[in-house]
Amino acid sequence: MAQSRILKFADPYAFQAAFRAVDVTLLVTAKGRFCADMVQVDLGRLLMQKSADSLPRIMRAAITPQRAPIMFLGHRNPGPVHLGSTELHSDEIVFWGRNATGHLRTTGASRNASMSLTPEDLAEAGCAITGRDITVPPDTAVVRPPDRTMARLIDLHETATHLAETAPGMFANPGVACALEQELVHAMIACLTGHAAREAERHSRQHAKVIARFEDFLMARRNAPVHLIEVCAAIGVSERTLRSCCQEHFGMGPIRYLWLRRMHLARRSLLRADPATASVTSAATEYGFWELGRFSVEYRALFGESPSASLRRPAEAGSRKAFH
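Below the sequence we write its predicted structure tokens.
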């Protein structure tokens, strides 16, 4: 049976865990109060999602092989969004590649919408509608459909998520749910067929491979401080190349990215720790911050509170859910 749910978040870690069809890691890049909301609709074969978040961030998205998702911004996105070095526009669709990983970077509050079928259902729907299978591309592509086709998809997506927010009981009617799913799948296929895809440039694809090796190295050394020279030696690129790749995908150099990543790991550790047994010193040194005074100053500047305040703060519910 079709169903929907509404989620609200005050915690980026709970927000990143709620995404479907993709594994998300969120790195907030500016100080401020984080808040986000998400609407999810399950129509049977088709899964849909709409989300909005309040702060600049880098979102690493790793596509799960069980789904074939697309993503778009819609009409009301408040600021620019970059996929790697490519700025996305409201009249474009990201057609994620098979087992792809990408970095979505924002400079402020942002919104996005997504929908997905299984690869088998995508192929079947493509064959039924166009007479040929539609397969997940080997590399992520940005598609720009005709204006009317894209507007139809956006309007239908907004209709479905609006129903989830205002009249969720409508999805209990099998006829309504089936008709809406059919319309959405048809609009999705129409947007993905018959139009040239704007694939990433060759150098951008090579840079994405460098970033993947960079992140694999960081994951293997997540609890230890790392230095730029050893990173470059381990992943086989020059410092200049790594800087160029990081600037393209993250909007910042590798040293700043490494520092932000470790600060967020330390914050998450403090928020989840038991203040009776944990300490700021242990959390800081675990992630490579040895100058505790400097760590406290920088922590407060980034998160708006001291490390000790984070440690003492009662655990907050990361999300509130309403199921329908």
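Residues 203-312 form a domain with the Arc Repressor Mutant, subunit A fold (CATH 1.10.10.60).
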